[in-house]
Design a protein that fits this description.
heterodimer, A: about 220 residues, alpha+beta, Alpha-Beta Plaits, four-stranded antiparallel beta sheet, 8 helices, 4 strands, about 55% helix, disordered N terminus, B: about 200 residues, mainly alpha, Rna Polymerase Sigma Factor, Chain: A, Arc Repressor Mutant, subunit A, 2 domains, 10 helices
Chain lengths: ~220, ~200
C-alpha cells in the first residue's frame, strides 16, 4: 500500500514537472501520453495546466524597441576577416554578374570597343596624315592653331608706361599675361608678324629681354 | 479551453526554420556577410527578448547579443548539426549572459524579493485593475526569480523550447531543467499576491 502511494506520488510529481512543456506542445509522444493519461484523474494537474496556459498567454513584458541596424553596424567592424567586405572581389564579381546579364550582341560590341580604341591610338602615335612640321608643335586649346605667336618680354626698369605702349603698338603686340614674378610679360603677336616684331623689339632700349615662346615655329 | 498542438504540427515549421538556419550557417562559413546579416536580423528580436528577461539589465543586452553573434560568426564552422541552430545560438547567448552577470557581481542563482520590485501602490491592487495589472505584476514576479529560473521560464513559455533543448542551451541535465521550472513555479506562487494567484 505504502509503495503504491509513493509510486502514485512520484508519477504525479513527474507529470507536474512536464506540464509546462505539455501546454506548449513541446513534449515527445511518450511524455505527452503519460501526461494525458494522468490528468484524466487528477484535478490538481488540470488546475496547473490552466496556470501554465495563463503564463504563456501573459507574455509578460514586451522587449524594448531596439535598433537592429545600429546594433549590427556596431558588430560589423568587429567581425572576423572572412566576413569583412572585400572590395576587389566584390567589384570583380559585380562586373562579371553585370556582364552575364547583357545581350550577346552588346557583349560583342563591348568586347570590340577596346580594339577600336587601340587601333585609333596606334594611328595617332604613328603620325599618319600629319606633316613633320606639325609634330611636336604646341597648340593651346583656348585659341585657334596658327592664330598668334607668344613672346615673352622684360622691360627695363626705366621704361615708362608710354614706352611700353609705344613698343607694343609699333609691333602689333598686346599683353596677354604677366607681370610674372620676374617682371616678364607674355605678348601675343600675329604669327606672320612675330619674327619681325621679335627683331624690332630687340633693338628697343626699353626692352631688356625678348624671346619667343614658340621657338620651333617662330624664328 | 486548452488547445495543445501535436508535436508533429509544431515540428514542421521549426524544422523548416532550422533548415534555413543551417543553410545560412553554411554560407557564413563560406564568408558570406549577407547571410550573416540575415541570421543576425532573424535572431535579433528573439535574443534581445531572452537577454532582457534573463539579465534584467537592458543596458547590457546589445553588448551581450553582439558578443553572442560574434562567436556565431567566428565559430560557424564548429556548428556540428547535433542540435538546432537556435539551440546552439541560445546556448552561446546564455553563457555570455551568465558571464556578463558574474562580471557585474549579479548573482545568477539567488532569488530576489518581490517587495523590492513592487512599490507601495502595487501591494493592494484594486479589483478593477486586476486584469490590467496581472501582466505587469507577473512580469515583476518573474523578475524576482534567479537568472537561471528566468531563463527556463523564458525559453519554455516564450521561445517554445522543449526541456531537452533547454538542457542543451543551459548545459545541464534535463532533470535540472525540470527541477528549476518546478521551483520557479513554486517561487512565483509564493511571490504573487493572493488575488493574482487566484486569477492565474
Amino acid at each position: 500500500m505504502t509503495a503504491r502511494v509513493v509510486s502514485l506520488g512520484a508519477a504525479h510529481q513527474n507529470v507536474q514537472e512536464l506540464l509546462p512543456w505539455f501546454v506548449m506542445g513541446t513534449l515527445d509522444d511518450d511524455d505527452r501520453a503519460t501526461v494525458e493519461q494522468h490528468i484524466e484523474g487528477c484535478a490538481a494537474c488540470r488546475g496547473e495546466i490552466a496556470w501554465h496556459q495563463q503564463m504563456h498567454n501573459a507574455n509578460i513584458a514586451q522587449p524594448l524597441a531596439r535598433d537592429a541596424d545600429r546594433a549590427f553596424a556596431a558588430l560589423r567592424a568587429r567581425l572576423p576577416g572572412s566576413l569583412q567586405p572585400r572590395p576587389q572581389a566584390g567589384w570583380l564579381s559585380s562586373a562579371l554578374e553585370w556582364w552575364r546579364m547583357q545581350q550577346p550582341w552588346l557583349r560583342w560590341s563591348f568586347a570590340l570597343q577596346p580594339l577600336a580604341i587601340a587601333g585609333l591610338a596606334v594611328a595617332l602615335l604613328s603620325g599618319v596624315g600629319r606633316s613633320a612640321e606639325d609634330q611636336g608643335a604646341f597648340h593651346a586649346l583656348s585659341r585657334p592653331a596658327d592664330a598668334a605667336a607668344r613672346l615673352v618680354v622684360v622691360f627695363s626698369p626705366q621704361a615708362t608706361q608710354a614706352d611700353m605702349r609705344r613698343v607694343l603698338l609699333a609691333n602689333g603686340a598686346h599683353i596677354v599675361d604677366g607681370p610674372t614674378a620676374a617682371d616678364a610679360y607674355v605678348l601675343s603677336v600675329a604669327t606672320d608678324r612675330a619674327e619681325q616684331a621679335l627683331r624690332q623689339m630687340r633693338t628697343e632700349h626699353s626692352v631688356l629681354l625678348i624671346q619667343s615662346l614658340e621657338a620651333e615655329r617662330v624664328h | 479551453m486548452l488547445r495543445r498542438l501535436g508535436r508533429s504540427e509544431q515540428e514542421a515549421p521549426r524544422n523548416s526554420v532550422n533548415i534555413e538556419d543551417v543553410a545560412l550557417i553554411a554560407r557564413v562559413v563560406a564568408g558570406d556577410l549577407r547571410a550573416f546579416e540575415t541570421l543576425y536580423r532573424s535572431y535579433f528580436p528573439r535574443l534581445t527578448r531572452f537577454l532582457e528577461r534573463m539579465t534584467r539589465r537592458p543596458e547590457m543586452v546589445e553588448e551581450i547579443l553582439n558578443d553572442t553573434m560574434f562567436v556565431v560568426a567566428r565559430n560557424a564552422h564548429k556548428y556540428n548539426h547535433a542540435s538546432k541552430v537556435s539551440t546552439w545560438i541560445f546556448a552561446i547567448a546564455y553563457r555570455k549572459a551568465l558571464k556578463a552577470l558574474r562580471d557585474v557581481n549579479d548573482p545568477v542563482d539567488t532569488n530576489g524579493s518581490l517587495d523590492d520590485l513592487l512599490g507601495p501602490d502595487n501591494q493592494e491592487p484594486k479589483d478593477e485593475l486586476l486584469q490590467l495589472q496581472l501582466r505587469r505584476v507577473l512580469g515583476e514576479a518573474v523578475e524576482a526569480l534567479s537568472a537561471n529560473h528566468r531563463a527556463v521560464i523564458e525559453l519554455t513559455y516564450f521561445h517554445g523550447e522543449g526541456y531537452r533543448e533547454i538542457a542543451e542551451i543551459m548545459g545541464c541535465p534535463v532533470e535540472t531543467v525540470k527541477t528549476r521550472m518546478f521551483h520557479a513555479r513554486r517561487r512565483l506562487k509564493a511571490l504573487l499576491p493572493g488575488t493574482m494567484e487566484d486569477l492565474l
